[in-house]
Amino acid sequence: MRAAAAEAGLDAYVATSDESIAYLTGFRPLQLERFFGVVLRESGAAVVVPKLDEGQIAGASASLERISYEAASDGIPELVAALGGARSVGVEEDHIVLARTLALENRGVAPVPAGSILASLRARKDAAEVEQIRRACELVEVGLEQMFAELRLGDTEQAVNARVEGRLREHGATDSHPLILFGENAANPHAQPGIRKLRAGDVVCADLSARLDGYWGDLTRCATVGPAGDWARATWAVVREAQAAAIEACRAGVPARDLDAAQRRIVEAAPELGQCLHGAGHAIGLALHEPPFLVPRTETPLEVGMVFTIEPGLYQHGTGGIRLEDDVLVGPDGPQILSTLPLELVELPS
Amino acid sequence: MRAAAAEAGLDAYVATSDESIAYLTGFRPLQLERFFGVVLRESGAAVVVPKLDEGQIAGASASLERISYEAASDGIPELVAALGGARSVGVEEDHIVLARTLALENRGVAPVPAGSILASLRARKDAAEVEQIRRACELVEVGLEQMFAELRLGDTEQAVNARVEGRLREHGATDSHPLILFGENAANPHAQPGIRKLRAGDVVCADLSARLDGYWGDLTRCATVGPAGDWARATWAVVREAQAAAIEACRAGVPARDLDAAQRRIVEAAPELGQCLHGAGHAIGLALHEPPFLVPRTETPLEVGMVFTIEPGLYQHGTGGIRLEDDVLVGPDGPQILSTLPLELVELPS
After folding, report:
1. B292 → chain A, closest CA residue
2. What are phi and psi of B159, to 5 degrees?
3. Of A98, A303, B267, B280, whose Cβ has the fewest other Cβ atoms within 10 Å?
């Protein structure tokens, strides 16, 4: 990382996102309003944390210099001191906020957008990281199976999401974002689970994610309450075909946008079933959503070791939504799906 | 808000944080990597969202102009078009990231740090907002009582935190951050709950927060497993005294730093019991942590309608931590505590 920063003409680098700090140090901060950062410069690496959070870095590598600041400081003077006169300093421009870049500029430091240096290192997962994502996927799969097995008419979205989240955490997830939506609510992929009760004839769209030992898994499966109607059956078939096409394209050298195009061409050919509201997916790892993003504007070519969610969907206002999501590794010989749960539309008792 | 922005010499204002968007529009976004913003300019207010998230703004006020952008865009061209030629544009400098301010600059817009305009409006809660915080506190209080009632020797931190979070969500919390720590782990206020089991003689430090209908409540209470030992009893008494002193200072016109000084002077006088690791607390409302922060560098005078957590603590490495936290309104006649749960050190069966 230090070599890459020097090659880019930077005097130093400051990583500030939770995930990059975890990547560089092995400890994942609980960040609130106070400044956290890992400083990489010629003399080695240092971590700057609030005094309140000294306990968080107790287990980090001994070679990491520790710098903590008192509640009377905002941490910027200590950060600038740690930079030791560096002027051109790489930052994660998708994480660092304007208040902090201005504070650095006021102290003679020039923040240079250089998030892609760290992002491209993080994007290529090694075997141990892939294994962690696979384990997180396993946890999510058990969560999905158990949720579908227990789902009953009259359950509210709110209660079901709460139960699943509680259970994933009891099984070791340190974070989790269940998004299980019923019937017409599933037509809005980012709806807030509420007091809507499960009814006969509903489609259930269940997107579950969990972080286990630092790495995320993220899967989506769907169900119908009672036998699937014509819309659900037809939509599921189109979405499955779109997912298969995007997975097939998930190979080293292929531009990220091509995976999006592969699914988009199929889901957009069925406007009578619903709308295409989002891209093919996103990279996943220490962050649930990380670059490269599988959207029309991403030209980045895929590399061996990258892991993506592949998650096309179709959403019909007033009816529901169907999405199918797996986590897929760009392997040396092609795509490797890290999850094993069948894609089948689950049929729940009505 | 538009008047305040014009008075500050701004041509327009762009709010980007979840909480400010909720404050201005009544809808709280689920923001991921895509740009969200509310634009305030002479011609009225507009919201810029990804097409994926159109469903999220369905219920917002009809007077709000809706602008959505396709997956092929990053939202910045649509934002700049919505700004209609405004040059000097106020932004929330503690939220907007460098990548976006640079993108704005590249299109001829000058982002001006102006988060305090919106923050100072948000800081003074009206009666309905205070009532919402009170309701969130009630939910947290029930969660604390039930958790202490059910806590048993051998329970793991991980399982207890998961259970509490699941239950708060089943009762309507849309977000929650339980941080219940046992024994020596409680000496680190931001420890990650893990596989540590509850043992006889432990101190339990239980910090629970929940968001209900948009507003947060945040309380901390402590317990001992079996009768409190000398350290726990003495520490609890000092922390209670410090909390009472800070609450007593929670009055209109008092600089925020004085509340910190009021508690700090008391906890720092007992170094044999532990360390003072943080300030007196923070404002609370749509965000769990929002300015003003009750730390030595905040000179902002308190105003009627502000609501703060008041949460001094003492932390003894190897032994544990005691913190007592309530949510307190700056009332016209002095402090009003919004929670009712006794501060007593709970004695659990051993």
Report:
1. A33
2. -70, -40
3. A303
CA pair distance A6, A117, nearest whole angstrom: 11
CB contact under 8 A, B277 and A51: yes
Helices of type H across chain A: 2-7, 18-25, 76-83, 98-105, 115-123, 127-150, 157-170, 230-248, 256-267
**Residues A128-167 as b or e (16 or more Cβ within 10 Å = b):** ebbebbbbbbbbbbbbbeebbeebeeebbbbbbbbbbbbb
Please, how many CA atoms are within 13 Å of residue A85, restricted to the half-sphere of its CB?
2
Residue A110: is it exposed, middle or buried by C-beta count within 10 angstroms (0-12/13-18/19+)?
middle
pLDDT (tens digit per residue) in B90-130: 999 999 999 999 999 999 999 999 999 999 999 999 999 99
Per-residue CA distances from B209 to B38, B220, B309 (Å): 27, 9, 11
Q: What is the pLDDT of residues A221-259, one digit of tens each?
A: 999 999 999 999 999 999 999 999 999 999 999 999 999
d(CA A278, CA B52): 6
Q: At B20, phi and psi to the nearest 5?
A: -70, -35
Q: Is 0.90 exceeded by the ipTM?
A: yes
Closest CB to A52 among B28, B172, B277: B277
Cα separation, B36 vs B55, whole angstroms? 13
Q: d(Cα A34, Cα A50) in Å, to the nearest integer?
A: 7
The Cα A50–Cα A309 span in angstroms is 35
Q: Which residue has 């950060």 as its token pair?
A: A79
Fill in the DSSP letter of residue A239: H
Answer whether A169 sits within 8 Å of B187, measured CB to CB.
no
The reply to whether omega before A292 is within 30° of 0 (cis) is yes
Q: Which residues of chain A lie closer than 8 angstroms to B50, CB-CB?
A: 278
**Per DSSP, what are the bridge partners of residue B169?**
none
Helix axes B98-106, A98-105, angle to 10 degrees: 80
Cis peptide before B291 (omega within 30 of 0): no
**A26 CB-near residues (< 8 Å, 6+ apart):** A59, A60, A61
What domains can you pick out in chain B, each with its CATH number? 2-122 (3.40.350.10), 124-348 (3.90.230.10)
The CA–CA distances, whole Å, from A313 to A70, A205, A310, B235, B341 equal 49, 10, 10, 56, 47
Give the position of tokens 């990548």. Answer: B99
Q: Which of A169, A197, A319 to mutate to test the interface with B (most CBs of B within 10 A)?
A: A169
Min distance B226 CA to chain A CA atoms (Å): 26
